[in-house]
Write a structure and sequence with these properties.
Blueprint: E1 2-4, E2 11-18, E3 23-26, E4 29-30, H1 34-38, E5 46-51, E6 54-59, E7 62-69, E8 79-81, E9 96-98, E10 104-106, E11 115-121, E12 129-136, E13 139-147, E14 152-159, E15 162-163, E16 167-170, H2 173-178, E17 180-187, E18 191-198, E19 207-212, E20 222-226, E21 233-237, E22 243-245
Parallel strand pairs: 9-22
Antiparallel strand pairs: 1-2, 1-8, 2-3, 3-4, 5-6, 6-7, 10-20, 11-17, 11-21, 12-13, 12-20, 13-14, 14-15, 14-16, 17-18, 18-19, 21-22
Length: about 250
């Protein structure tokens, strides 16, 4: 996977996966443990994160601990090149858009391997808030209700206007302690898998839940929040890289 500039053909940063040698390189540096992280899942997620004049590698939400110095200013990048068979899709960064948690956000058709990221701020004493992946108002593929006052997280599906059976888990103390957290919803063949971790420390997953497919995930049309005070959810990143945030200055 190469981030490059078309004018000279020079690479800003290069990531090379060598299955025959069970190694991953970031630039010229072999990244210890990265290949093992790739093989933990049938579909892996690799992110190149740019910070200042360096790039770092994040695999399945976990920082791999190595950086590469950028070869030229990032503004000169003109294309991304993926070589080899393993790559299924690429998400490019998009400008941040204003986030309001009482709004609805249309989404493109979901497929296996897609990830939607929700960022929220834990509010002790709040009765309830929710994030929903909907077909329409009467058919919700996934309903995630976070109830701080009751110290519980509830998953459910609505079909034809009626709720189905709940899946519950207690709110971990780590969510209370970290304040701001990320919730990843990952589309897999059999289920929507949900992971919670501290915002900015996505390798430290403190809760995993799963919702078996009860409605066709490829029929989803929108993300909807129920957050009447607009103070719990603060960011949404869709599967195509579209980012909605209250932090528009970054």
């Amino acid at each position: 996977a190469v981030v490059s500039t078309q004018s000279t053909g020079e690479d800003l940063v290069r990531v090379v996966v060598k299955p025959s040698m069970s190694t991953v390189y970031l630039g010229d540096t072999q990244v210890d443990g990265a290949f093992e992280e790739l093989t933990k899942r049938d579909t892996f997620h690799m992110k190149i994160v740019f910070e200042g004049e360096e790039a770092k590698l994040v695999i399945n939400g976990e920082d791999q601990g190595e950086t590469a110095k950028l070869s030229f200013p990032i503004g000169a990048v003109s294309y991304v090149l993926c070589e080899g068979e393993p790559w299924q899709r690429v998400k490019l960064p998009k400008p941040r858009q204003a986030f309001q948690s009482y709004a609805r956000y249309p989404i493109n058709q979901l497929g296996v391997g897609d990830v939607i990221t929700f960022t929220g701020k834990h509010r002790p004493g709040l009765s309830a808030t929710s994030a929903n992946i909907n077909i329409d108002d009467h058919n919700r593929i996934l309903h995630v209700a976070i109830r701080p006052a009751s110290s519980v997280i509830v998953l459910n599906t609505m079909s034809g206007g009626g709720w189905m059976s709940e899946i519950r888990a207690p709110i971990p103390q780590e969510m209370v302690n970290c304040g701001q957290f990320d919730m990843f919803v990952m589309v897999n063949e059999d289920a929507l898998d949900i992971e919670f971790s501290p915002d900015g420390d996505n390798g430290n997953v403190f809760l995993q839940m799963s919702m078996p497919h009860r409605l066709p995930y490829n029929k989803a049309t929108e993300i909807q929040f129920v957050d009447f005070n607009d103070d719990f959810w603060c960011e949404l990143e869709l599967q195509d890289g579209s980012l909605f945030s209250k932090e528009l200055t970054h």
